[in-house]
């Protein structure tokens, strides 16, 4: 039975390989189970959210380490092999990032900002489909000029190069969030701007970097066309394998995908 909604992560799975999408989302097999880096990302996302929800001083390092250990434990319970040295390094890297978040926000929004929401759920109808788009927006800010700013936290090593910053399957996440957030709140899309916030583990400076992603009508049109194409193929069980992605696939050369 097909789900009544689709998320951006599911769309990415389909874009990577339609057959992989079928194995994970229809057959309910476990694909990528996570690793040390995803544990780090989940933990630091949680602390970013908590920092935005209070003006009080919080034991951010203690909370991060607790969240990170919890994520690592989940991987261990799922029998994911871990690198102990990497886990140790990530503990230290997270602690180095946290003190820079507020300063980076204040520098990026020099006229001030209001926290509108964190982890806001989107569940809006997709035009021309019976399905809805599901997502969780990391943070929503409002600036004195009345603009709404959607921000997605991304943990990384030293930063993103130009290719990564313009990759459609990276920026489309924010495009969808803007489009469906505007529908949910009955807003003019021109009043909504989109940004990534890079949380850099190994950078020697500028550990938290915000940058804007342009999200105008053309990019929105292209993103929605991809979404419609995916829904059509998923609904009609068109399961073409993308052989170029096999080397990175959890099912490569297994009974599920020989």
Explain this structure.
With 258 residues, this protein is of the alpha/beta class. It has one domain (5-248): Lambda Exonuclease, Chain A (Alpha-Beta Complex). It contains 9 helices and 6 strands; from the N terminus they run E-H-H-H-H-H-H-E-E-E-H-H-E-E-H. The protein has helices spanning 8-16, 18-26, 36-52, 60-77, 84-97, 101-108, 162-165, 168-185, 217-235; strands spanning 5-7, 114-125, 132-142, 148-156, 192-200, 208-213. Strand 3 and strand 4 (148-156) form a beta hairpin. Helix 1 crosses helix 2 (18-26), helix 3 packs antiparallel against helix 4 and helix 4 runs antiparallel to helix 5. The relative contact order is 0.16.
Give the topology:
Elements lengths: L4 E3 H9 L1 H9 L9 H17 L7 H18 L6 H14 L3 H8 L5 E12 L6 E11 L5 E9 L5 H4 L2 H18 L6 E9 L7 E6 L3 H19 L23
Parallel strand pairs: 1-3, 4-5
Antiparallel strand pairs: 2-3, 3-4, 5-6
